[in-house]
Amino acid sequence: LKKALATVPSDLSIYTEESVFTLQKVIDSIDYSLDITQQEKVDEYVEAIRNAVDSLEVKPADYSVLNAVITTVPTNLSIYTDETVVALNDVINSIDKSLDITKQEKIGEYVIAITNAIAALELKSADYAELEEVLKTVPNDLSIYTDTSSADLKTILAEINKNLDITNQEQVDKWAEAIPAAVEKLVLKPADYTELKKALATVPSDLSIYTEESVFALQKVIDSIDYSLDITQQEKVDEYVKQIDNAVNNLKKECWFIRFIKAIISFFNRILMNIKFLFS
Questions:
Q1: Where does 168-255 have alpha helices with state H?
Q2: Which of 35, 86, 123, 153 is most enclosed, with most CB atoms within 10 A?
């Protein structure tokens, strides 16, 4: 009996209350005052103790902390990268839920592993595909557009952050939606007519002293000027400048005698017109 009692574990706290109660009940029932004629009863005690010891059931491990950690796993894992989600699922799937209290340390390892895997979850990048397509419609050189018309587009372009994650997809979509409207508003700057104005300022105020042909050539250039050109047509404006310069330089003065004859004819024409007026 003493040998049987020696097999009873010193720490019964790791066993279920029910199995310990059964063992303790046997131990408490032992009657140490029996004599040799009652040896059979003592032998029964031995058998009962052995059976109770063999029936001791170790408590299951405490999974409460682990279960609490598992509840912190995000419900929507689709927003995280496949690699980090797989790593988390591998840890969760590796959990052995049949461990007893003697393996409690293993539960602690699970807790640490899951906590680390959750912390390592990496959000997917926002989808920039549509925005990238829209950005292709933005002119490379915005300096040729008026400041007013390009202000909104410049503001949007300055705001764009290409490092946003999937939780900011709505902002990326807003940029993609706003850019086409901003591009549509762009207005080209007018062409620079400064040099042309300077060239026109060199045209003599009195063209009557020049030959009709040379004046006609100059006037033809002046009449051909289109003042509605934009900055992309600056080359055309610069061409006007050259044409005006050439036409002014090619103005030819009539000889004094022809000018004198024209003046006499003009004088008599005015006299005739006055006479007609008086007798009409």
A1: 169-184, 194-201, 212-224, 234-249
A2: 153
